[in-house]
Specification:
heterodimer; A: alpha/beta; Arc Repressor Mutant, subunit A; Nucleotidyltransferase, domain 5; 5-stranded mixed sheet; 14 helices; 44% helix; 20% strand; B: 258 residues; 6-stranded mixed sheet; 4-stranded antiparallel sheet; 9 helices; binds adenosine-5'-triphosphate; binds magnesium ion; binds zinc ion
């Protein structure tokens, strides 16, 4: 038998998700505006809003005082204080846990320094679970957790959330999603993604890349991760490891890389390359050490200037290759690459001018993240919201709300 | 193909007494773009933007705003067109808070009297629209702010009244790296929000980090105005130091006489 078209019920569920996504991403929105944006009639919007209200996902109310006269129309706003997700960001040097309300509001947040050294799953999961317990203690009884998302600085298998590799953290074949789900014991599925991939999605949803269908996000965290969005879709690759631009070889036989290869982008541009070139490879590490080099360069230290220029040149070469291949509208420099880009933009852009096809660079925009250091965390939150936005009622039923 | 500039001057001459400091200058600024204005000390950058802002009168030349010829003979006329200049010294009052500073000298001009709540809301909205997250309270005294925060307030003040062109004369010169980064991001955001931004800077990283176009003045003449994606660092340095770089720039520098 031929598959019938979508049923009334399927269409309704889909529309509920679409409406909720509008309100989630754009904040309080009037019914009239939703009617226009979704191309549905007023009564349908009213019915959908009523369903989402009954489910406790949105609420209708008068907009805040505008100071203008006249009767303002009702707006649909997300139930940010009631419906939330847990978002975790596992970077090389820091662990972040946050409770993020529908609509993207960070309601609560905990952060800890992660010591470099061997990756101990027990330890990381234990600390995130402890943060969660602290945050949950402060939540009201009527709140509901609809998802858990994790951004991880490494390659994550999309099918099961297993961390396959992470040259800068040292986790190999670690069942992170499964273990975290067990330890949290919330009965809520845990989704795990690569931090730079999630950063790309976050900047596209809420950051400097809103409205961009072709976007590249580069995330510097000791090494370099990448998230490529092409024609509106994140390039995931077969197993989920797409976008590992940090291991694009740009200097054959160059500096050794944590992945075992040589001359990878992250080997030439990463934290260690910068610190060594600046003669500052030592006890000071991480973001502060990178900032110290940029600062020294700004104050006229010629060794630091030279190091930054060299690293900027390699970064420009890597970006030039990416721009020629993907023809993005925007390239975003996040994590420690924000400091490197701003401190070495002359080199980065000179490379792009000389090495990129004119047609690919003429309207290219180079930017830093609007979400700042929260880009990857926000990406984890958006990953966690994916279920409830795809099918709100089904997702609520699954978490037993 | 080329969009119409919001602001353009052609054939601009400016002398101070017997000394001519701007010769036949052409310059344009576009909505949604940052145009960097570069040049050696004394090249005429500040003088040019003061002409644009109505602080200096021009001796000769055409001034177009939105494609129409205009006369800009005072800062007030410039402000009426939507042109704002943020100076190095910032002109903020230390003993007033952020909101008060943002409205300082503005209440009368717009003709309407604003209540505190409205001013506070407008100030908060403006800072929010620029994604400014570094100031804790808009009721903080300006004297308690860092250099970067003061720059931020001065810039926010300039965009408060729906300005169309914002001119920044060396906004990062006195700032450290962290604050420079924040101001650069703010400069970029102004343009991304649709304003035409003119940025004077001596720092080539700052220029390349945020500009869409680069205009290089050399001894009072416009050596070239180019798209930033079409030039390299060394070409811009050549334009600044010798007025030309290969095909670009003034082709007859030595023959030029004032
Ligand atoms: N009010 C004035 N009266 C007389 N000469 C002036 C005046 N303002 C500027 N000049 C002269 O005009 C020339 C251009 O000065 P201007 O301040 O525009 O340079 P600039 O490019 O901004 O330099 P800097 O990078 O040092 O700020 C200089 O020779 C300067 O001495
Ligand atoms: Mg000057
Ligand atoms: Zn590698």
């Amino acid at each position: 038998m031929m598959r019938a078209g979508p049923s009334q019920e399927e269409i309704r569920r889909h529309n509920l998700g679409v409406l909720l996504r509008h309100v989630h991403l754009d904040g309080p929105t009037s019914r009239a505006e939703l009617t226009t944006r979704m191309g549905l009639n007023r009564s349908t919007i009213m019915a959908l809003t009523a369903d989402l209200t009954a489910a406790g996902l949105v609420r209708e109310e008068l907009p805040r005082e505008t100071g203008r006269a006249g009767r303002p129309s009702l707006v649909v706003r997300p139930e940010s204080a009631r419906v939330y997700v847990l978002a975790f960001d596992i970077g090389v040097d820091r662990l972040v846990a946050a409770r993020v309300g529908l609509g993207g509001v960070i309601l609560d947040r905990r952060e800890a320094i992660r010591e470099r050294g061997a990756f101990v799953l027990e330890d990381v999961v234990g600390r995130l679970a402890a943060f969660t317990a602290q945050m949950l203690q402060k939540t009201r009884g009527d709140t509901v957790c609809v998802g858990v998302g994790v951004a991880f600085s490494g390659g994550v298998r999309s099918s099961d959330g297993v961390v396959r590799f992470s040259p800068n953290i040292g986790a190999v074949d670690i069942p992170l999603g499964e273990e975290l789900e067990r330890r949290l014991g919330l009965g809520v599925p845990v989704a795990v993604g690569n931090d730079a991939n999630l950063g790309a999605l976050a900047e596209q949803a809420r950051g400097v890349g809103v409205g961009c269908r072709d976007l590249i996000y580069l995330h510097g965290d000791v090494g370099i991760g990448g998230g490529v969005i092409a024609a509106g879709q994140l390039l995931r690759g077969q197993g989920g490891y797409g976008g590992e631009v940090g291991h694009m070889v740009i200097n054959s036989g160059g500096r050794p890389c944590g992945c075992g290869s040589r001359g990878c982008l992250e080997a030439e541009v990463g934290e260690r390359a910068l610190l060594e070139a600046a003669g500052r490879f030592g006890p000071q590490i991480g973001r502060d050490a990178v900032r110290a080099v940029v600062d020294a360069a700004d104050r006229g230290d010629i060794v630091a200037q030279d190091a930054l220029a060299r690293v900027g040149d390699w970064l420009g070469l890597g970006v030039a290759n990416l721009v020629n291949i993907f023809n993005p509208e925007i390239v975003i420099f996040g994590g420690m690459l924000r400091e490197i880009y701003l401190g070495a933009a002359a080199q980065v852009r000179s490379r792009i001018t000389t090495d990129v096809l004119h047609a690919c660079r003429e309207s290219l925009r180079l930017r830093t993240p609007v979400l700042g250091d929260d880009t990857t965390l926000v990406g984890a939150a958006e990953l966690a919201f994916a279920q409830v936005l795809a099918d709100p009622l089904d997702a609520l039923a699954r978490v037993g709300a | 193909m080329t969009p119409q500039p919001v602001l353009a001057v052609r054939g601009l001459d400016k002398s101070f007494g017997p000394v001519q400091v701007l010769h036949d200058v052409a310059f344009s600024a576009y909505a949604g773009e940052v145009t960097a204005l570069v040049g050696d000390n004394g090249a005429g950058k500040s003088t040019l933007v003061k002409c644009l802002g109505g602080i200096h009168s021009i001796d000769a030349g055409e001034y177009l705003f939105d494609g129409k010829p205009v006369q800009v003979t005072s800062p007030r006329e410039a402000a009426e067109l939507g042109i704002e200049i943020v100076y190095q010294d910032l002109a903020l009052c230390d003993n007033l808070d952020i909101v008060q500073n943002m409205f300082l000298g503005r209440e009368r001009k717009s003709g309407l009297v604003l209540d505190e709540a409205t001013m506070e809301e407008m100030a908060a909205k403006t800072l929010d629209g620029l994604s400014v997250r570094t100031v804790k309270s808009i009721r903080q005294l300006v004297s308690s702010l860092s250099g970067g925060q003061r720059q931020t307030v001065a810039i926010a003040k300039a965009v408060l009244w729906n300005s169309k062109v914002v001119i920044l004369d060396e906004p990062t010169a006195a700032l450290g790296v962290a604050q420079t980064a924040q101001v650069l991001e703010l400069v970029r955001r102004l343009a991304d929000n649709g304003l035409a931004v003119i940025l004077i800077s001596h720092n080539m990283n700052d220029v390349f980090a945020v500009s869409d176009r680069i205009a290089a003045l050399y001894l009072g003449r416009m050596a070239a105005q180019v798209k930033a994606s079409d030039v390299t660092h060394s070409q811009v340095v050549e334009l600044i130091t010798s007025g030309r770089s290969g095909e670009l720039g003034l082709q007859n520098v030595n023959g030029v006489t004032a």
